[in-house]
Write the structure tokens for this entry.
Amino acid sequence: MIQLRDYQEDLFLKARKSFQEGHKRVLVTVGCGAGKSYIAAHMAECCHGEVLLLTHRHELYDQTGELFRQNGIPVRMAMILTEANRLGQYPRPALILADEAHLSRSNSWMKVIEYYNAPTVGFTATPCRLDQKPLGDVYDDLVTGVSTKWLIEHNRLAPYEYYAPTVVETDGLRIQAGDFVVKDLETLMMDRAIYSDVWDSWQRIAGSCKTIAYCVSVNHAKQVAAMFNDHGVPAVELDAGTPPKRRQEVMNDFRSGKIMVLCNVGIISEGISIDDVECCLLLRPTDSLALYHQQAMRCMRYLPGKTAKIIDCVANYTRNQLPDAEIEWSLTERIAKPKRYNDAGNFSLRTCPVCYRAFPAADRCPYCDSPYPLHVREIKKHEEIELQRITEEQAKIAEQERKKARQEQGRARSFAELVELGKSRNMKNPTGWAYYIMRARGGR
């Protein structure tokens, strides 16, 4: 029998209560590395009838399947594309468990879920689509667990250090389906000068750490792997087109330590558990909170004494909430983007030019005590704020002058008084103006 931790048991009971209240599709969310697979396994244990477990990658299929096999839990596992092509060949399950449910709005997922129309539980650390849209059109209830901050404080996830030696600028890149256009990203990231900056940053911050590098494209991943190998660091490229047998060999070599850096494209973004990975190297700019969290937190599996290192070379932290940010997830509302600037015009999160650590706006780095020189964009923002302040003051003064003029005009009751007021204002034709005002007053 699967033994759940206290916060996992709490999620299990909340999900069960949701079904008892009449909900049909329940979305369960808790941070990456919190053990969602164990909750799913316990649900399968407690189910009276066949359980269908859906996943979308071979690595997740093997990893989750091993957990169920080790605990003797009967379940029918299927890759989502395979199941979508075999509808009608199996009886309706009593329960569907959907792994990495932030993907479950895709056509293949919806085809399977709607065909069986069975009680369904989705699991994800990021309950929103990759394009930021909520999942209320798929699930009818959201069950949330403890926060990432809580998991870190209670030794369920490793604490992390966030480094942002930004080596690229993404301003002006095209957006498509809620994220940057991959072709644009590849062109941007293939600049040879960038590789040198990436190597220097990784060597300085995480030179001996087992690392997952997140790349833009297959070509980019191959070039990044070549860069590490040229410096004597064993690295391999891995992507969705890598044959299953080769993918298994690479993962085994990475787990054993034969490979130091795994340069991947969309393979190690969800659910993969490799406890001794200490570093995530972010080389793929993304505007997707779901993708960002799924990638950045892969190094935060807990080990005693471990501190994870997230090296964000593409400023993803400026577009997304940090891994331990308190996020109020919703089935109906999009998650708000973090503010790039605070009210004073400073970056809400700054990067130390000496140690590369990211920190809330301050005059000095709280980690190495180095002074923080204002970024040119902060200086420009300060100028914009000051210009806006001046403009607002000018508008206020102008309105005060208009009010004063209206009051003076109101106190001038006779035609003669209006003529004298017009003269005091240096009007070219005070008499004509006074005549117009008197006529507007009804001839008084």
